[in-house]
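Weekly modeling sync, notes
Attendees: S.R. (lead), two postdocs, one rotation student

Agenda item 3: backlog of single-chain predictions. S.R. asked that every request posted to the team notebook include the full sequence so nobody has to chase files. The rotation student volunteered to paste the first one in as an example of the format we agreed on. Action items at the bottom.

Example entry:
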Amino acid sequence: MDEYQRTLHALIEYRILAAEDDGAVLPETEKPVEPGEPYEGVARLIRLLRRVGDLPADAILEDPDLYQGALVTAVERFQRRHGLDPDGRIDKATLAQLNTPLRFRVHQLELALERLRRRPYDPSRSAIVLNLPEFRLRAFRQNHLDLEMKIVVGEAPERKTPILSSQLEMVIFHPYWNVPVKIERDELVPEIIKDPSFLSANHLEMITPEGAVLHDPVSDDMLPKLRSGRIRLRQTPGPKNVLGLAKFVFPNQYEVYMHGTSAQWLFDRARRDLSHGCIRLEN
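Predicted structure, as returned to the notebook:
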């Protein structure tokens, strides 16, 4: 079953679930609900998680007033599916997802289907598919899953990674990072002002419009040129380079691309919308 058919099947199922659900809202608490604690929303939580399939119908629940056992495991499964840290705690982020009406999930699936209609791809051809809400990449060859990995995508909503379709054009090994002007102005120049050794410590070079490397220390006269982009910054290849070992280029109007990263610890997070818009690859 291809991605379109799976999404269509999920839409049909969720339309039924939304029609059957009573729409009750789980009560808020001052502090996160921890496993083993009493919670007045246990009955609703059981109904909801059974309905969406995270809690098996035959799960044994010993105390109807305590949040424990199989119910905690079901919440962890729910958290994992929704890009949350699967710690079993019912905190504000988890409660917000649990209280999202199923009719809204129906609308999300309808939008996903429409995107698939507008940007179809032939599953029999080789393809790299990025599932942005899931923070995962899958590579297919002749309809066979060849590769799967975690990704980091653009921070929502201001820097979210755009939805697009393109063709991989080039792979650059040991790339330079040419710092975008906005990042240079808003993030790096303040660091340079605070610490004159910031450039050398982070293997950054100053580049003139002609492409020459400036070896002079940063002076007060240079700061306006750095802020305006008349002098550009670039990071040399190496273990500290933010693009990692490779950069994957595909033509698009948004100037985004895929690349490695020196910040591998970010892949330990469940929610990974952390970049400026480009896609960081786990491996």
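Discussion: group reviewed the output briefly. The chain has three domains: 24-100, 121-174+242-281, 177-235.
Action items: rotation student to repeat for the remaining queue; S.R. to check formatting next week.
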